[in-house]
Design goal:
globular, single chain
Length: 368
C-alpha cells in the first residue's frame, strides 16, 4: 500500500523529467487519488462475493502491471500518467481488502493494534518513494527511475507470499452487499461522521506533507531544492515512528481513548507551526506527524469493530473517502495564494478540529 504514496514525490520528479507545467504535474496526484473514489465501492461489493484474499491479489497484480510499464522506457508524459493511474488503482484495491482482512487474522481485541502496526509497515513503503530516489541520485548518480524495478521485485515477492498464505476469512450471515446497501450505511450518523473523518484526515495529511517544503522556503529561506524529497521523508519518518509506538500503546489503551489523545497531540504540533519560529516549526512538523500517525487506522478499525458484519461495505466507503486527498489540498493552495503559505496551514488546522470533534463527541455517543 505504501508504494501508492510515491505519487507525491513523483510530482516534482516528473515535472523536471517531462518539462511539465504546474497543472500537468498536479494531474499526477489527481490520477493517483481519483481511483480511490472510482473503484472502492465496486471492489468492496466484488469482495463481498469473492473474498478479501482474491481482491488483495488483484490489487497487487494491477499495481505490478502499472509499475512494469516504465521498465520498457518512460518516453512520454501520457505513458507515465498511465503508470500512476494503474498504481493508484492497485493501491485503492489493496486498501479495500487489506484493512478488513487484518481483522480476520487478528486475535479478539487486537485489531486496532495490528492495523496500526500494518500502517507502520506501510509508512516504510511511503518513505521509500522519497529516500530511494534521493539515495540513487546522491550516492550513485543514478536516475530516480531505479525505483520501478525495486518496486516490481517487492510486488512479485508479495504476490507469491500472499498466494501461499492460508487465510481463514470471517464469514458473516448477512444479505449480499450492493450499492444501495453500501450507501444506506451513511444514514447512520456514526458511520457518516467516521467516513467524513477519513476524507478530512487524508486531505489534511497531504496538505502537511506537500506544504512543509514550501513553508520552510517561504518563511525561513530553506531552498526547496536542498530540502527537496527530504521534506516528505521527515514528515513520513514521524508517521513511521508514531505508528510503531501506536501498535505498542494500543496493547494497554482503548482505541477510542487513543484517538482522543492522538488528535490533541496533532493539534499541539500544528499550533507550534503558527509560532513562525524555525525551531518551533520543525518540532511542530514532527509532533504533527507523530499525532497523525494513528488517526487513519484508529478511525477505520473503530468503525469496522462497530459493525463487523458490514466490514466490506464500510471498507469500500472508507477507502472511497481517501479521495479527500484530491480535493482538500487545493483549498490550502487558494488560502496560500490569497494570504500567505503560513495562513494556508489554517486548512489542515480546521480539518483537525473536525477530527477532534468526532473523537470526543461521536465516540462518546456511540459508547453510550
Amino acid at each position: 500500500m505504501g508504494f501508492g504514496d510515491a505519487v507525491g514525490p513523483f510530482v516534482g520528479l516528473a515535472k523536471e523529467q517531462f518539462q511539465l507545467t504546474n497543472f500537468e504535474a498536479q494531474l499526477i496526484t489527481f490520477m493517483g487519488f481519483i481511483m480511490f473514489g472510482i473503484l472502492s465501492i465496486p471492489m468492496s461489493l466484488y469482495q463481498d462475493r469473492k473474498g478479501k484474499k482474491n481482491v488483495l491479489l488483484l490489487g497487487l497484480a494491477i499495481a505490478l502491471i502499472g509499475l512494469t510499464i516504465p521498465l520498457f522506457g518512460l518516453s512520454n508524459y501520457a505513458l507515465f500518467l498511465l503508470t500512476i493511474l494503474m498504481l493508484g488503482a492497485g493501491a485503492a484495491i489493496l486498501q479495500v481488502a487489506g484493512n478488513p482482512i487484518m481483522r480476520d487474522v487478528s486475535e479478539p481485541g487486537k485489531y486496532s493494534r495490528n492495523l496500526s502496526f500494518g500502517q507502520f509497515v506501510k509508512a516504510i513503503g511511503s518513505l521509500s518513494g522519497s529516500l530511494i530516489p534521493f539515495a540513487a541520485a546522491s550516492w550513485f548518480g543514478a536516475s530516480w527511475k531505479v525505483l520501478f524495478p525495486i518496486y516490481v521485485a517487492f510486488l512479485l515477492l508479495t504476490l507469491v507470499v500472499i498466494s501461499l498464505t492460508k487465510i481463514s476469512e470471517e464469514k458473516e450471515d448477512h444479505q449480499t452487499a450492493n450499492f444501495t446497501s453500501s450507501f444506506s450505511l451513511l444514514k447512520n450518523p456514526f458511520i457518516l461522521f467516521m467516513v467524513l473523518g477519513i476524507f478530512v484526515y487524508v486531505g489534511i495529511e497531504i496538505c502537511i506533507s506537500s506544504g512543509v517544503p514550501i513553508l520552510l522556503n517561504s518563511q525561513f529561506g530553506i531552498r526547496i531544492e536542498t530540502w527537496g524529497l527530504l521534506g516528505n521523508a521527515f514528515f513520513f519518518l514521524a508517521i513511521l515512528t508514531g505508528r510503531f509506538l501506536g501498535s505498542v500503546v494500543l496493547n494497554w489503551i482503548k482505541p477510542q481513548r487513543f484517538l482522543q489523545l492522538t488528535t490533541l497531540l496533532s493539534l499541539l504540533g500544528i499550533l507550534l507551526i503558527f509560532f513562525n519560529i524555525q525551531a518551533y516549526t520543525l518540532v511542530g512538523i514532527f509532533i504533527t506527524g507523530i499525532g497523525f500517525a494513528n488517526i487513519f487506522p484508529l478511525i477505520f478499525s473503530i468503525t469496522i469493530d462497530a459493525m463487523p458484519e458490514r466490514s466490506n461495505e464500510i471498507s469500500g466507503l472508507m477507502v472511497t473517502a481517501i479521495a479527500g486527498g484530491a480535493f482538500i489540498p487545493p483549498l490550502m493552495g487558494v488560502m496560500a495564494d490569497a494570504f500567505s503559505v503560513l495562513v494556508g496551514f489554517s486548512v489542515p488546522l480546521l480539518g483537525l478540529l473536525y477530527l477532534i470533534l468526532i473523537a470526543f463527541t461521536r465516540m462518546k455517543k456511540f459508547n453510550a
